[in-house]
Each structure stands twice: as structure tokens, then as C-alpha cells.
Amino acid sequence: MDVDIWAWVGETQQQLSEAGNVGLAMALGDLPAQAYEGRYPQLDVMAPAIAQQAEALELPWLEFYARYWHLVGRIGDRAQGAVAVEDAEQLLAFARREDVRDCPATPAAVEALAVAWANTDGPGYAAQRLELLGPAIEQAEPAGPAFSGLVAQYVAALVDAGRAAEAVAYAESAVERLRSAGREASWELGAESARALLADGRAEGALDALQAAAAFQADDPVAKEHRDGVRRALILATLDRLSEAVDALPDLDVVGDHPRVFVEWAQAVSKLSGSSQITNTWQLGRVLRQWIDYFGTMGGYRPRVELALVAGDLAVARQGVWQARALADLAQSAAAELRDDTGVAERVAALRAAAEATSEPEAPGPEAERVAYFDAADGYNADPERWVGWLAPLSGRDLEATRRHTTTLGFLGYPATGADIYWKMLVDTGDIATADPDDVAYLTTLLIEARQDERLEQMAGMLPHAAKHLTLARLHIARERWAEALDNAEHAVAAGAGVEARRIVATAAQQLDQNAKGAKALLEVLDELGDEDTWRMIVMATAAEDWQTVRKGAAKIGMPIKSTEGPIEEEMGLIRVILPAPDGGRRQVLSIRTGPATARLALPQPRGMEYNAGDLVVFDPQLLEPLPEDPEEQQNFVPPFAAVSILRPGGYTSYFFDGAAPSESDWAEFTEVMAERGWPMWVYSDENYMVTHPTTGEQIPGVFGWVAVPPGVSPVEVDALLDDATERWSHPLAWLDLAREVDVEVERHERIVKEYGL
Q1: Kind of pairing, strands 640-648 and 616-620?
Q2: Which domain of life does the UniProt lineage start with (predicted)?
Q3: What does the pLDDT average to over 372-387?
Q4: Residue 489: which H helix or E strand, with range?
Q5: What values do phi and psi take at 574, rounded to 5?
Q6: Greater confidence, 52 or 456?
Q7: To bridge 581 with a disulfide, which of 7, 325, 585, 686 should be the other Cys (CB 3.0-4.6 Å)?
Q8: What would the DSSP string read from start to end of 294-306?
Q9: With b meaning 16 or more CB within 10 Å and e meaning fewer, what string describes 673-703?
């Protein structure tokens, strides 16, 4: 996307704001940052909402823009594969519509589909990618913004097609075309050129190419550093420059949030695992297993197979024989989803052979005593991967060993294996109906983690009434099927199930906005509740305005309440309430705590927000930031809490003001006038906000903010008061939106805005 599209974005934002769509305008410009910075919860909410509004407003370019950035957030750093292919295909079809195809950004839809295919199965889709990208590159001008990205994907497709030498030549030719057009290659194109050289067996050239690309601008600047580090480490490891490779390799806590580099990072670690600087541990195996599952969920068929094989080799190297065998099985079954499985069967066979040739570590004691040894092991330093192998001979025969073995399997990422063992022992034998509740809970957890829902439902049908409904409630709450969870949990409670069933009732009821029901379920066992459950009850009772229950909960946790009946309205100090912003982010609003879980917003908010000063909100009393350790910092600490809902709107209306900052005395008088009337006012500008002196042209301090007025105060009254309060200032203040609303001195306010550059 070039300057034309960004100019269009700016114009569209202005048009939307003037039409009253302030929230949409605010969110629009933030979508690329959300996609690149990994703010996916915001992106996944805001982008579809913008696309939907754009469709309703008949703005197809805007709809394409929103849908494109949402897709980038999915197929870029998150590396979604098959789950995103249909959306990518639909976006390309949309881009080819007559009313969309002239948008400067539409070639990006071709690139997006190529990326989605590559994420799914790079070699398997190589021919389709080349066929798709070729015509788009022919139509793209090297001087245009789309060329470099399309070419980078073409080079990647050539590499995946096994045509590495051709990919190198193509990349070099493209760089020359870009240079002739006065443009520089992107970092992504340089990095793909390096990948092609590495695949062609020219690792030194690959390192030189990556080094040259370091100076290039990246299409995804946020990801450039860690992507460069991973690829550099892989190339250096291939060159056997192990120390340099280790230095270049980003830490796991860096790459753990970036699925796009999972495979290359694992490949680099595999090459470096013999180095004294890289430790091949069970923790590494557990992480790789989680990554394998991630790609299984996201339809990353090729990455799933590749990671399984790499993780298997690493497991063999640390004598994790059982895990290597399991990973070989996984790679073999996952290969069935590949469009091109060339070479996979041979690699699986090699992994199996390596596992068979490897001896497991010697057990710490005889079989009969291993449960005792397990229980006595240091929970911090013990190796759970080894214990899975040591307990395996007993698992399925000895209940205590089975419990430890299967739950450890689940912990390491193999819940289906653990569930199979437990199932044979308890379900196939018919013992599940009389099994210990803990065993039912363990098996339920394993089945849920293995996503074997039908099997779990089958087991539930064999259980007594209370246990059956509690088991189903656990399943439904895990899948966020709130109505089904509530129904089954209520049946379990009625049949005498314990506190867990009531917790599920409370959780599901809160999600379904049935707060009174959830609070009641917990109140009935108040004496059995800990602080966390008691606070949950307080929050739900507050939302239901059941003040008697709130008082009982407050008494349980030792929080004094002065009043004895009716709504709780007390001043309990300042807090920060965290509320959603129109751009999908979060907004902190200074508020006065009025009860255990209520606060009244103290600051005026811009027009278009769903809340304002004077609103009474319910908040979750769990601190979002830890209390500072320093006593002085504690005194100034204003605790932050997440808002749950608006309990009662205050009905306040906000008006925007903007202009040159007045003298300190004038400002003090202005704020005093606002305070006397009880009109919350807040300055949103900082010391960096400057405006233009209309006579000298110099930059002078400015001020802008919002003032909120309670119900019953007319816009005319607000205009008159602002006029009286600021008429003696050396520089005038503007409140253009308000002036237009009351149709008073509109031209004067427009002139102020223009002259001061507001």
C-alpha cells in the first residue's frame, strides 16, 4: 500500500468523523498497527466491525481495507493456514469486483492468498502459487508498492517447488528491476533471496544476502528483528559457526509469540542442540509439542509435519524414546493432509529407526517402587519426560501409577495418549460408574484437552446423575457453550454436586447476563467459598443490584460497609477503571470507587464513546497491576480494575474545546467555574501540544479537552458559560462542534480553528 492509499485513509477518517462516525474513524488508522504489533484481540473485533459498517455505508474500498488487514493479522505473524484459505480466496474475488479493483491496494489480495497457501503446505501449493503470482507480477510496475511483495512470494514458491537456483536468479533480476525503477528491495525480498541461496547449498552467499538485506525497509517492521535473527542463526548453524548462531538466535520468550518463525527456529535449535550453549530439555520438547498442536488447529499442515520430525530428532538426542515414537506416529498421520508428501515417509522411517536404536535412561528403582519414587521426586528439577517412560510399564494396571503417568502425559502435550490408557482401565472395564471422582475429573480433563468430545459424552452417559451432568458441564464450559454449561451445572447442583458445579453455574450465568442466578448459586454455600469465589459473587450481585448479597459477601471478606440497606454509595477512594476504546484498545478512566465492585467515572469522554463521566460501572475487583513495593509509590498508586458493565448511565454529554493555552490564573479560574457547577472537565493534550500564533506564526502552547455536563443542562447553557468564562483570555478558545449544534457564532469558531491551526 503506497502513499495514495494512506492519503485515502486519512481522507476517509475525516469524512467519517464529520459524519458522526468518530469511533469508526479512530479505529480505521490503527488496523495496520494492530496487525503488525500483535494486538490480535483488538484486530479480531475491530476489523470485522469496520468491514460490516463499510458494507452498510457502501464504501467497498474501506471494506477491502478492513478485510485485508484482518487477514494480514491472521496469515502474517500468526501463520494461519487452511483455516484462512477460504477467506483469502474470497478477498481476492472481492478485489476483482468492478467497484474495488481500482483500489491501489488490491494486488495485495493476490499476495495474501499466496501466503495462506504457503502457510498451509508450501511445497504442495507451489505450482498454484506460481500460477497465481506470475500474472500479477507482470501487471505490477517495479516502481509501484505491490511489486516487491509479490516477487518475494514468487521466490518463496520457487524454493518450495525445489527450484532454488532459479529462485536465486529470479530474486537477483527483480532487485535489478527495482533498482532501475529507483526503488529498493524490501527486507522480505532480501530474506527470501537468502533462503533460496541456503536451499541451493550456498550458505555463505545466503549470509551475505541477509546481511545486505539488513539495511532494507521491511513491510512488517515490527517482525524484522526476530525474523532476521532466526534466519541468520539457521544459516550460521548450517555453516557450523555455532557460537555466532547461538548469539543470533532469539530467545524462546521472544519467538514464542510468533508462529511464523516456529519451524525455522526449531530447525536452528536442532542444528545447535549439540552445542554446550543450547540445552536440549524436556521443556523444549513440551514447547515444540504445543507448537505442533497450534499448527494442527490453524491448518498449518506442512509446519506440523516438519515440527514433529524436528521434535522427534531432538527427543531421540535426549533419550526420550517414547516421545520420539509418538512424534513419528504423529508425523506419519499428519502427512496424509499434505498435497505433496515427497520424502516424508523416508524421514519418518529414519526417526523410527533412531528411536529403536536408542536406550531409555535407567529407571531410579524397581517397578514396584516407582510411584513412591515419583512422589518423592523434586517437583522442580524432576524430568517429567523420563517419568513417563519409567511409569509406562505400570500404567493401565496400577491405578496410582496410571494417575501419575496419564496426567504427566497430558502435561507434556499428549492428552490423547493418556486418555487411551485411562479409558481402557476405567471405561472399557465398566469401572467408570464407581470410579473415584478424581479419576473421572482427570479423564475428563484429558479428553477435553485431546478434543475428544464425543468420547467424553459417551463416558458421561455411564456416570451417576450428578457426575454425568458435572462432566458435561466441564466440557461445555471449556468449549464456551454457556447455555449448555449452565443447564448441566444446574442439574449437577440439584443432584448434590459440590462447589465446582456452582462455580460453573456462576461462570456461565455471568456470560449469559443472568447475574442474579449466578450470585444465588454461590450465596447458598457462602461459608465454603474462598475469597476469589466470594468476589465473583459480589460482582454478579452488584450487576443484579442485589445489595443484600453484596453486603453478605463484603462481610465475608472483611470489607466494611457503612450503610445497612439499599444501594451502596460510599466514597472509597480513587481507582482507574479500564474500559474498551473505539479502536479496540483499552482506555483508563479515573473514577471514584463507590462500593466493593462499583465506581463512578470522574472524567469526561469524547463523543462516540459508550460511557462518560457520571456513569456508574461494575468492575472486577482483581488488580490488573501489582501493588508497588516502595511505600512512597504505594501512596501515589491508583489501582486499576477491569470494567464489567455499565450499571447506570449518568446521562452526561461531552463537548470538545481547543485553542491556545491561557495564563495560569485564567485557567485556574476556568477550572473553578467548571467545578462549581459540577461539570467534569479534563485536558487530554500534553505539554507537546502546540498551536500557531495567528499574527507571528510562532508555535505556542495549546490545550484541548472535553467538558461533560449532567442531564438537564442545555447546549445553549454550555455555550453561554464557555463564552463568559473565556471572553477575557488573550487568545480565544474554540468549541466548534457545540457552536454548530446551537448555531451560535459558527463562523467565529471556524476562523479560530483555521487561524490557530487547531
Answers
A1: antiparallel
A2: Bacteria
A3: 87
A4: helix 482-494
A5: -85, 140
A6: 456
A7: 585
A8: HHHHHT-HHHHHH
A9: bbeeeebbbbeeeeeeeebbeeeeeeeeebb
Q: Which residues pair with 588 in a beta bridge?
A: 578
Neighbours of 179 (CB within 10 A): 12
Residue 41: per-residue pLDDT? 83
Cell numbers 517412560: residue: 389
Instruction: Output phi, psi for 219, to 5 deg.
Output: -65, -35
Rounded Cα gap, residues 546 and 565, in angstroms: 10
pLDDT digits over 36-69, tens only? 888 888 888 888 888 888 888 888 888 998 999 9
Residues paired with 690 in a beta bridge? 701
Please give the angle made by the CA atoms of 99, 101 and 107, to the nearest 5 degrees. 155
Q: Is the dihedral of CA 260, 262, 267, 271 positive or negative?
A: positive
Tell me the pairing of strands 699-709 and 681-683: antiparallel
The set of residues, in sequence order, having a beta carbon less than 8 Å from that of 633 and lying 6+ positions away, is none
DSSP H/E element including 706:
strand 699-709
Q: What is the pTM of this model?
A: 0.84
Instruction: Return d(Cα 357, Cα 680) in angstroms, integer.
Output: 76
Residues 327 and 348 sit within 8 Å (Cβ to Cβ):
no
Spatial separation of the C-alpha atoms in residues 699 and 578, rounded to whole Å? 35
Q: Name residues whose C-beta falls within 8 Å of residue 124's C-beta, 6 or more positions apart in sequence.
A: 301, 302, 338, 339, 340
User: What digits encode the pLDDT tens for the residues 251-266?
Assistant: 999 999 999 999 999 9
Q: From residue 89, how far is each of 75, 100, 114, 515 by CA, in Å? A: 13, 15, 10, 42
The C-alpha angle 598, 601, 603, rounded to 5 degrees, equals: 165
User: If DSSP states are collapsed to H, E and C, what string results for 519-570?
Assistant: HHHHHCCHHHCCHHHHHHHHHHHHHCCCHHHHHHHHHHHCCCCCCCCCCCCC
Cα separation of the two ends of the chain = 29
Grid cell of 518 as nine digits = 449466578
* Rounded-to-integer distance, Cα 24 and Cα 15, Å: 11
Closest CA to 618 of 543, 550, 559, 714: 543
The answer to whether residue 25 scores a pLDDT higher than 80 is: no
Q: Are 539 and 618 in contact (CB under 8 A)?
A: yes
Phi, psi (deg, nearest 5) at residue 593: -70, 130
Percent residues over pLDDT 70 in the chain: 97
Instruction: Give the pLDDT confidence score for residue 18 in this predicted structure.
Output: 64
Say if residues 690 and 701 touch (Cβ distance below 8 Å): yes
CB 401 within 8 A of CB 373: no
Of the pLDDT bands very low, low, confident and very high (cuts 50, 70, 90), residue 442 is very high
**pLDDT at residue 3 greater than cutoff 70:** no
The set of cell numbers assigned to 425 is: 482401565
Dihedrals φ, ψ of 451, to 5°?
55, 40
Q: Which three cell numbers stand for residue 595?
A: 462500593
Residue with cell 513412591: 372
Residues 400-436 have pLDDT tens digits of 999 999 999 999 999 999 999 999 999 999 899 999 9
Helices assigned H by DSSP within 357-427: 370-376, 384-391, 399-411, 415-422
DSSP state for residue 435 in the 8-state scheme: -
Could you tell me which of 280, 281, 319, 282 has the C-alpha nearest to residue 413? 282
Instruction: Give CA–CA dist 108/85, Å, rounded.
Output: 15
Q: Which amino acid, one-letter code, is at 549? A: T
pLDDT, one tens digit per residue, over 708-754 is 999 989 999 999 999 998 888 889 898 888 988 888 888 899 888 88
